[in-house]
Amino acid sequence: MREPVADTLEISSAAKEEQYVHAVYNEIATHFSDTRFKPWPVIERYLLALPTGSLGADIGCGNGKYLGVRTGDIFMMGTDRSSSLVEICRSRNHECLISDGLDLPYRNGCFDFAISIAVIHHFSTKERRMDAVRELLRIVRTGGTVLVFVWALEQKGRRKFDENTQDVLVPWAKPNGDVYQRYYHLFRDGELSSLFSEIGGCEIEEAGYDRDNWFVIARKL
Amino acid sequence: MRLLTHNMLKCHVKNCTDPDKQYPLRFKDVQIEQIEYEPNEEFLVRMLPRIDWSALVKTAKDLNIGIPGSMPEDPASDQDFLQKLHTIIMETHITEGSMVCDGCSHEYKITKGIANMLLAEHEI
């Protein structure tokens, strides 16, 4: 069993994310997608509670598992940085395009809601994580909501992390034995809420821990 | 890619900030496909405030798609209008081609129904 290791890479944040996030997801897309099919309960509940006619964005939508939770009376557009994952979304007839979460191609305030599930932990500096949250808040209208999930440092499931090491490389093993390292910033209790508070212009409606992740639902003011 | 999605997209190249030119993106050399989708009138009525109507009219005209020039006074009770709106924003897909910014000339490619909105490093 391969274990996560501390990130001691001395390369730029953009290069780190290119090599240890984007390139890896393109390589593991199919296997990753095959392991991601069941919506998490907090996210499903959030989507099912939205009013009819809501327009939403899923930033870092992966294989599109949340794009199909509720169709017909709301509409969601996905974006992902990985073209391989976007192709999987298209093959399932989801609306999806290739884009970078730090720099979204949408006009200001055009969505009623935005979700970003297990994505922002892949940005390798605090400033970049804040920029990613700022972009989510920028694209939703005043009164709209944003839901974010990120990996917790304090995970109690099958993955265990050293409580003093927040920046790690986590192995992904494909069935053929190939192993790829993905970069993660593991969030401490309260850290995600703090990002939203520091950015401002929003109020936190709900924050909590679920499935080895910290999550926040924030409303744009 | 649906025209509803296109209505939300703007050019995001750094220094390309003229609001009259960066939006809407202009389609170029496109292939269009109509794909049936179950209509939902309440959804369509609620989409109206989300849509930039003048951008939608401009884009539809560019693509030779018939569209009412102005919104009816009571769109919720105008079934003919809602059906047209549904066909345009939900059933019309751009499968190939590109979107061009009139401000900075950046061209965003669309391949197999997928728009690539990534920028080069110097454009971010």
Would you write up a description of this structure?
The complex is a heterodimer of chains A (221) and B (124). Chain A is globular, with a radius of gyration of 17 Å. Chain A starts with a strand and ends with a strand. Chain A is built from 5 helices and 10 strands. Chain A has a single domain (10-152, 190-201), classed as Rossmann fold (3-Layer(aba) Sandwich), CATH 3.40.50. In chain A, α1 runs parallel beside α3 (83-91). A 7-stranded mixed sheet of chain A has the order 4-3-2-5-6-10-9, with helices on both faces. A 3-stranded antiparallel sheet of chain A has the order 1-7-8. By secondary structure, chain A is an alpha/beta fold. Chain B is of the alpha+beta class and 124 residues long. Chain B has one domain: Single Sheet (N-terminal domain of TfIIb), CATH 2.20.25. Helix content of chain B is 29%, strand content 20%. Chain B has 4 helices and 4 strands; from the N terminus they run αβαααβββ. Chain B has a 4-stranded antiparallel sheet with strand order 1-2-3-4. In chain B, a hairpin with a 6-residue loop joins β2 and β3 (107-111). The mean pLDDT of chain B is 95. Classes of the chains: A alpha/beta (221), B alpha+beta (124). Chain A: Keywords: Methyltransferase, Transferase. Chain A: Residues 58-147 form the Methyltransferase type domain. Chain A: One of its GO terms (cellular component) is cytoplasm. Chain A: It comes from Coemansia spiralis. Chain A: One of its GO terms (molecular function) is tRNA binding.
